[in-house]
Amino acid sequence: MPERLLAALRTEGVTVPFPIQAATLPNALASPAPSSPSSCRTSPARCTA
């Protein structure tokens, strides 16, 4: 995870991820963001409101 994000989490006292976070964050951070709304129609799991 990016050091800036880790530092912000440490500031809040968050030092260990929940198991679901540990399992999903690496893939989520490695995936590029959808480039257009049409990407959300073909891969809705990658789009959030």
Automatic annotation (TrEMBL):
GO terms for molecular function: helicase activity. Residues 28-49 are annotated as: Disordered. It comes from the Bacteria. Keywords: ATP-binding, Helicase, Hydrolase, Nucleotide-binding. The keyword Hydrolase applies. This is Superfamily II DNA/RNA helicase. It comes from Streptomyces griseochromogenes.
